[in-house]
Structure to design on (445 residues):
């Protein structure tokens, strides 16, 4: 067995393109997933029973079914159901926005519930409505506490986006498969790609650990 | 929204799905046992004072926690055989990838559990003349394991969902079989909806059970 990285390095731009697409999917899924998660959490916490039950069902459903099944459903099944032109890109964004929103909803819920009851009462005493108290008093404090859990989830999301390669979206994993077939060098290609993921995710994890420590010192963290 | 749902082809092919479910359960049983069992070993080593034990387990944990599990499975399927000359079938690739990933994640759970025990417990063990290993086995682990039980169940749930990734290397499990049915009967909606429902029905009670377990443990502490 002889390692030969030449084939990988000469086509490295293909892998970089994949990396950009991986980051694009992650960023877009976060952009839609976080607000959607907040909506789900607020519904879940609402005193209106049907709204809370529906939100709870959506959250539990997307947390207990495998993301790969969800992706296949949105890619292969949804276009038949509602007659849209589905591309791998759209299916990926839709799947991971909804999938991560279910997890973000639980983080939001934990954060909101961790805020002392007195804060709500304070808002009420000042004559604020529920929505005003939530926006002006509760969320600003809750979000700060949720940052570590958010970062952890975002990193999980980044790892899960490798699944989009199975519906032929050109992320880093897909480009790796492609290059491995073209060059007949699977060992080198997959090792390099594993390293690329490792470096990216390791740096992000370290960053999140640092933020977590800083927040833990100031007492603002709901993680563990 | 004028699709007429028709589950007839699914019901006619229930045996195909059943074979898939057996595959899912096989890979789950193997990976959850190896992953959570091996994770305890790595977690204890990760906590050890000896650098010879601590550093390799630390590296192991970092590598497998910070790479996507799909990359690991594919690496074991396509790259590992070239490196070692060992033939790797889809089952082995999926089992290796998911087990090692789970070992790394659960090692951190066990470590957190061990670290959560007050130092006084270690000192008490020492005062009674117990060796490090005896204290660990008789005093620390029983309490630590109880504390991390909910986290471990959550890992188990993740592992069950991860088993679908085995379909990427063409291992015969539920999702792979559903794809087969969908391709033959042109019914992706019903096929993939059924798989989603199967996972939901299996995991929903487990998740609810975990919540109850968490509440019970919090009360008993």
């Amino acid at each position: 067995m002889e390692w030969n990285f030449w084939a990988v390095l000469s086509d490295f731009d293909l892998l970089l393109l994949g990396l950009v697409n991986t980051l694009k999917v992650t960023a877009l899924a976060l952009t839609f997933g976080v607000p959607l998660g907040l909506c789900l959490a607020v519904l879940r916490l609402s005193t209106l029973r049907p709204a809370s039950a529906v939100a709870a069902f959506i959250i539990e459903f997307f947390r207990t079914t495998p993301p790969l099944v969800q992706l296949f459903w949105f890619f292969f099944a949804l276009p038949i159901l509602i007659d849209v032109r589905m591309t791998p890109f759209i299916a990926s964004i839709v799947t991971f926005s909804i999938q991560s929103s279910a997890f973000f909803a639980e983080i939001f819920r934990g954060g909101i519930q961790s805020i002392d009851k007195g804060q709500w009462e304070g808002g009420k005493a000042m004559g604020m409505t529920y929505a005003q108290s939530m926006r002006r008093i509760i969320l600003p404090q809750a979000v700060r506490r949720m940052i570590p859990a958010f970062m952890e989830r975002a990193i999980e999301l980044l790892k899960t986006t490798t699944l989009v390669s199975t519906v032929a979206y050109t992320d880093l994993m897909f480009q790796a498969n492609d290059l491995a077939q073209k060059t007949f060098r699977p060992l080198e290609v997959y090792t390099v790609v594993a390293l690329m993921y490792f470096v990216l995710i390791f740096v992000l994890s370290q960053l999140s650990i640092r933020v977590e420590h800083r927040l833990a010192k100031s007492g603002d963290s709901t993680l563990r | 929204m004028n699709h007429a749902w028709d589950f007839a082809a699914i019901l006619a092919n229930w045996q195909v799905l059943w074979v898939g479910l057996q595959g899912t359960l096989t890979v789950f049983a193997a990976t959850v046992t190896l992953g959570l069992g091996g994770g305890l070993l790595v977690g204890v080593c990760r906590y050890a004072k000896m650098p010879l034990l601590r550093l390799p387990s630390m590296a192991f944990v970092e590598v497998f926690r910070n790479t996507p599990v799909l990359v690991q499975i594919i690496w074991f399927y396509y790259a590992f055989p070239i490196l070692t000359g060992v033939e790797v079938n889809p089952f082995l690739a999926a089992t290796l990838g998911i087990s090692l990933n789970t070992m790394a994640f659960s090692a951190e759970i066990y470590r957190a559990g061990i670290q959560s025990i007050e130092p006084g417990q270690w000192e008490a063990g020492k005062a009674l003349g117990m060796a490090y290993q005896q204290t660990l086995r008789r005093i620390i682990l029983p309490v630590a394991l109880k504390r991390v039980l909910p986290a471990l169940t959550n890992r188990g749930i993740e592992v069950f969902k991860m088993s679908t990734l085995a379909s990427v290397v063409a291992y015969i499990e539920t999702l792979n079989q559903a794809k087969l049915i969908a391709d033959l009967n042109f019914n992706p909606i019903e096929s993939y909806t059924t798989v989603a429902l199967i996972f939901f029905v299996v995991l929903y009670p487990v998740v609810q059970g975990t919540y109850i377990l968490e509440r019970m443990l919090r009360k008993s502490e």
In short: Chain A touches chain B at residues 1, 60-61, 63-70, 72-73, 76-77, 80-82, 159-160, 162-163, 165-166, 173, 176-177, 180, 186-187, 189-191, 193-194, 197-198, 201-202, 205, 224 (CB under 8 Å). The first helix of chain A runs from residue 6 to 10.
